[in-house]
Amino acid sequence: MQKGDLIELTIEDYAFEGKGIARIEKESDEEQRSKYVVFVVGAYPGDKVNARLIKVKKSYAEAKCIEVIERSVLRTDAKCKFFGHCGGCNQQDLDYLNQIKFKKLQVENVFKTIGGFDEINIEEIIPSEKIYFYRNKMEFSFSKVRWLTLDEIKSDKTIDRDFALGLHIPRIFDKVLDIDECFLQSEESNKILNFTREFFKNRKTSIYSTKNHKGYLRNLVIRQSQHFDELMVNIVTSEENDELISEYSEKLKIEVPQITTIINNINLKKANVAIGDYEKVFLGEGFINDTIGKYSFRVSANSFFQTNTIQAEHLYNTALDFADLQGDEVVYDLYSGTGTISIFVSEKAKAVYGFENVQSSITDAKQNAELNKIDNVHFYEANLYKTFLPIVNQNNLPKAHTIIIDPPRNGMHKNTVADVLELNPNKIVYVSCNPATQARDVKLLVEGGYKLIKMKPVDMFPHTYHIENVALLVKKKQNDK
Asked: CA-to-CA distance for 408 and 432, rounded, in angstroms?
């Protein structure tokens, strides 16, 4: 087999990151026939497919589904016409009950293969209450290079290839799929998306290019409260143009009256990120409000806030349940962000100390604590990639009974793992959006003297293979294995 070959495969199983597993007969070095594994993107158990090989290794291969010959009973019809092209959803054609079944299996498998755990106590997954229009934030990109689908290429219609506003094609960073409808956020979001495209396109506004670093438009970010009638539009540009953005704001507010604040973030960096070096507010207060449980949070344009607000409450309740706080414990919250977990668990703790790398997040966290009239939560800027122990020692902070950890996708730095082991808390509650890096870190914590008690997945992102997982670890006793 060689890269580029088209082969027929029957999909038998499901693997990490939503890939189907096929096994084919292959002669080993000992001239004995053995099963050779092929991971297939876009295929599900029960499918028979034609797949193009994109990587061939000695022990496995990777392929992409080109054609479904026989359709699995697990499949369903995707709701979105752009499914299969953009990077917003990758499993919309898999029945939702099977999505969550496979997500739970995914967690179990990575803890066995990466973590080396034989026995795992994994509780039932919490499915998402909403499987469409569940996101409170959508980030769209402008591009001078529009990605064309096969239908568009074959079409007789004249298509403007030089202006696109939509979502990036997976693994292709310079082309954007121009979309006019998305089922991830809301109908208002779609109206904003389409108005924005036409407004700037009609004025022949330039688009920023990462190749020559010229052009004006960069991103459109929409944030929407799930519990209040508040809606934010953030237009990210490479420079100021108050006259143009003022006109845009006035006309957009008329088109979508539900909008409560409009912001212009000016990103002076070459990096293609939807975060500005500074911002200007053209309508409203420059932020929106939302709640998780009984707590209120102020969400600014660049602050972190869980993308699925409703599921975030289930996620935090799971973490709180695992921590089993009795009211007299000191809790450390690592990667505390804007303070959502710290504030959520504060009522059950004696004191909570949040540690975060980003100063702007700490500012937001302190404002959120003040907003909720909470005085037993304290936030500190700390380098969680080198060591945060100096901050603990310099401020003479009390010993932590419980440490809650919610790191980014790449997990904990080995230095942070070492710091946690040195602090030696009674309990560790590890919240993760990436079970693979979580399994790696949990293995280190277990080797350092802890026992993995139980886990519970929470589905925050329907129609994707992403899954949040909460794990509880406690200090080993002398008779524990």
From this structure: 8
